[in-house]
């Protein structure tokens, strides 16, 4: 238990990678502020499950990552309830797949807001408290698409390249305050986000489901395997440890070799 008495806010933690990170941080003793969309009863089950399984406190913030005031309130909820927000994981994200000329303008705006601007709003709210306590860990879930592009994902690739830049900038600004800022860049992780983009990719590229999985998704990854949510979560836990205190501004790939090509 390395994170006892710390509090972690994890955005987009009702599902997929964020949920695995929240559970892994709770396992290390951190209190958790869960966030994300979903069925109320399911979310309550997840929240209560974290408390009973790991013996920590867990709260749920319904903040919509499209709304800056709600994002700030999510951070304040953690500070009011637990006394501090020590770890901030900006993880919420959505995807949309379309040729650029047909890309719906509202989808572009949503992806930039949820996948990029929400991290800015949360960081802006959390950094003063971290500076005051001289300790903080900010982890942004970026993507292999923060380093390389794929066709038909203009908004997602733009947002993820943006979050890599935001990570480096804030890392420099807070470097002398005991705060590290890093991003994790997974390749394809089998989560609802990946499952949901298969039908659109089938349409955009004229392929079957099996062809999308094997020839588009796993084609990118030399290991020919999906990354697991627990592998990403283990890296997040490591970034919160003392062993990682000199890692900052890094963009850490976990992509089966994708971006080595
Ligand atoms: P997911 O769909 O399982 O989870 C996304 C989470 O974000 C959910 O909790 C959802 O409720 C939340 N969310 C979406 N819109 C929101 C909003 N407006 N306000 C608050 N919460 C909102 O997806 P995932 O695969 O676990 O993705 C998590 C992060 O990992 C994303 O940033 C994604 O871009 C990134 N990522 C995923 C993969 C992958 O292959 N799955 C690869 C690289 C990066």
From TrEMBL:
Enzyme class: oxidoreductase
Keyword flag Iron-sulfur: no
Entry GO MF terms: 3-hydroxybutyrate dehydrogenase activity
Keywords, ordered alphabetically: Oxidoreductase
Protein's UniProt keywords contain Oxidoreductase: yes
GO BP terms, alphabetized: monocarboxylic acid metabolic process
Top-level taxon in the UniProt lineage: Bacteria
E.C. number(s) listed in UniProt: 1.1.1.30
Pfam families cross-referenced by the UniProt entry: adh_short_C2
Recorded family membership: Belongs to the short-chain dehydrogenases/reductases (SDR) family.
PANTHER family membership: 3-OXOACYL-(ACYL-CARRIER-PROTEIN) REDUCTASE, 3-OXOACYL-[ACYL-CARRIER-PROTEIN] REDUCTASE FABG
Protein name: 3-hydroxybutyrate dehydrogenase
Native source organism of the sequence: Microvirga lupini
Lineage: Bacteria, Pseudomonadati, Pseudomonadota, Alphaproteobacteria, Hyphomicrobiales
């Amino acid at each position: 238990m390395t994170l006892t008495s710390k509090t972690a806010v994890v955005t987009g933690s009702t599902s997929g990678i964020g949920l695995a990170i929240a559970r892994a941080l709770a396992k290390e003793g951190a209190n958790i502020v869960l966030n994300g969309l979903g069925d109320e009863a399911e979310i309550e089950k997840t929240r209560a499950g974290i408390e009973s399984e790991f013996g920590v406190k867990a709260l749920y913030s319904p903040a919509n990552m499209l709304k800056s005031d709600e994002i700030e309130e999510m951070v304040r909820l953690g500070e009011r309830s637990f006394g501090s927000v020590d770890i901030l994981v900006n993880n919420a994200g959505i995807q949309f797949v379309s040729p650029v000329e047909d890309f719906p303008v509202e989808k572009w705006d949503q992806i930039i807001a949820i996948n990029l601007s929400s991290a800015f709003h949360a960081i802006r709210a959390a950094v003063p408290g971290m500076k005051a306590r001289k300790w903080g860990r900010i982890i942004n879930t970026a993507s292999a698409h923060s380093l390389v592009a794929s066709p038909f994902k203009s908004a997602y690739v733009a947002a993820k390249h943006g979050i890599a830049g935001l990570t480096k900038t804030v890392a420099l600004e807070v470097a002398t305050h005991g705060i590290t800022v890093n991003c994790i860049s997974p390749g394809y992780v089998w989560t609802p986000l990946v499952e949901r983009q298969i039908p659109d990719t089938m349409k955009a590229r004229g392929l079957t489901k099996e062809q999308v999985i094997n020839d588009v998704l796993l084609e990118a990854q030399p290991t020919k395997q999906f990354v697991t949510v627990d592998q990403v979560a283990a890296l997040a836990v490591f970034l919160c440890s003392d062993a990682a205190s000199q890692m900052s501004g890094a963009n850490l790939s976990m992509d089966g070799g994708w971006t080595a090509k």
